[in-house]
Structures are given as C-alpha cells and as structure tokens.
Design a protein that fits this description.
The protein is of the alpha/beta class. Helix content is 41%, strand content 16%. It folds into 2 domains: 2-164 and 358-374, 3-Layer(aba) Sandwich (Rossmann fold); 180-346, Rossmann fold, CATH 3.40.50. Strands 1, 2, 3, 4, 5, 6 and 7 form a 7-stranded parallel sheet that branches. Helix 1 crosses helix 10 and helix 7 packs parallel to helix 8.
Amino acid sequence: MKRIYHVGGWHRNYGDFALQLGEMRMLRAASEESLEFIPINCQTTRFHRDLITLINDDADLLLVGGGGMVFHRPEDDSQSGWQFNISQEDLERLTVPLVVYGIGFNKFYFDDRGFKPQMNEHLQATQAKAALFSVRNQGTFDELVSRGLSAERMEVIPDPGMFAPTAPLSLPGLTEGDFKIGLNWAGDRNFYRFPEPWEETRLQVVDALCEALKRLLDRQGGGRVVFIPHLAENIDSEVAPLFEERLGAAFYNVEEELPFLYPASQAQLPLFADIYRQMDLVVGMRGHSNIVPFGLGTRVIGLGSHNKNRFFLEQIGESQAMINTQNFPSGCSAEEMLATMTAVVDDDSLEARQAERLAALTAVSDSFNRRVVGLLA
C-alpha cells in the first residue's frame, strides 16, 4: 500500500469531486500497488511545520491538484498567493516526491484584483521542487510561461474530471424520448462573471439564453431544460426562478427534483455525473460542466466569460462551441446563441470527433499517470 496526500478543492463542489475521483481512478488503474489517498482541502488548510513533518514521515507522495488552483482568494490569506498555501521556506522542507497535477489558471475575466506579488516566484519554486509539473490546458501553459516558469519542465494533461465514474441515476419526470438540454449556471462571484452593472447584465443574459433554449426545444419537437447545480445552498440555484418563469413547464431543476443529491458529496458524485451522461446537449458555465459530459460522450457548449471554458474547448478542438458573454450584449444575442446550439446539435461528425479526441487525451493521461506512480517505487 502506498499513501498519497492529495491537495485540492475537496469541499462542496460536484465539479471538484468529479476531478478528485477521476484522478484517483486513473492513478489506481496505472498502479500495480494499492493506493491510499489522504485528502487535504486547499481552501481550508495552511501548511505548517508539523503538517510537513507528518507528510514527510507518512506519505509516499504529495500530489497537488488538479483544478483551478492558480487563483487568489483574499479570504484564504495564502502564503503563496495561489491555492497551495505553503511558504517558500517550508516548501523546501518537503522530502517526499512532489507532483503538480493538471492545475489551471482560474482568474475571472472581470476580476481586477490581480495576484499577490509573491505568486510568480512561488510557482517557479514549486516547479523547481516538483518531480513532475503539469497544467490542464494550453491557455494555462502559456500564462505560466509568461510568469517565468519553464516551458521545458511543464506538461499539458487533460483535466481528470473527464474520467469521472458514473452510476445509474433515475430522473423522475423525464422520459427517455425527451430532448434533454443540460443547463449549468455558476451562481457565485457574479461581479467577476458579468460586465457591470452585473445584475442588469445577468438578467439580459438569462433573457437571451431562455429565448434561444425555447426556440431550440421547439425546433426539436419539445423537450426539457435540466438545470444542474454544482453548488447547493441556493448558490447556483439562485437564478432558477428566473429560468422557470421564462421556460415554464420545460424547466426541470435537479436540486428541487432530487434534493437528496445535495449538498455535493464524493460518495454521490457517480450518480450526479450520470445526469450529464443522460443529456443530449449541455450548455455549461462551470468548467466541469463541460469537462465531465465531454468525457461521457455528451455534446457540450461553453457559457460565460471565464477563459477556462474557452481553454477547454480549444483543447478538444471545438472552440466554436462557446457562448461568450465577455462583451455582452455584443456578439451574444438570442439568435447567435441559438445558432451556436443548432450547429452543435446538427453536427453529424461531432460524436466521432469527440471520441477520437477523448482517446488521444486518455493516452496523454495514461502516460503521465504511469510516471506519477513510478515515483512511488
């Protein structure tokens, strides 16, 4: 048995749980030995001397990521300026192998706070310390190279959320013949997601999106819009009444219909992921609302202003499948949203392209995972 201390955002988001379980699944498949994972929530854990001693004494590997860890939250009082909350001095005290796994650049488009001044130097030191250092997309690679990291020592691997496990889940009230559009909306940090005045802009986006969704359902002969929150506590569902008011009986809120799935949990992630498998199309704002369904063979469209959605779509060769709200309402009318949706729905070659791209990304992941478990010897 080998023990891996695993650092990431393991807290309350189904997307992060998909990433965590997908990563564990792939590493276990690559290892001839049994692996035990000790989770460390990066958003609530400050690395201190005694914790580092424990890791050095007890762990065979310290695994940092994946997820959008190149992200600054002032409330974390981070020593590093990003989500690996360890001082540079204590970083050097680590004696176990360190692997940085598929981290992502996670700055919100309208967030003008910037980063702490020590972040670039800390990321450079972390890369120098790491036995393997990887990011989850080319956009993050380019960003970190611009911040002084070595391109030669950095790899691009797929986000392991696309390898999340599934288990059968019944969706009461939906029939197999329904055309099902999965809709994921991110309800936190609205002021960083929408142009100011963000309340007005958000409402305009909802109006345009609902008009496009209604017209797509009409075109398909009917169906349902399945609202799929990743966060509970009325965070992602805060806007659900706006969608229900505009979509009427076509609207189906997973958090209301299946309340037992919330709050998000690692144990129920395979059931939750199966919702994405059952959709005909997913329009998603959170990164993993694109990544998870792609891995399950479902057609995806990115939604919103965050560049991580665009980075992912570029990675899978479908950059045109994006409803970009960075400059809303310019270039983002209901007609243009509908055109993006119909192009994806009508693309007869899309399924084969996605399968081919998934196979290629799986091969990249397998190669990297073999080298990770090789450090445990």
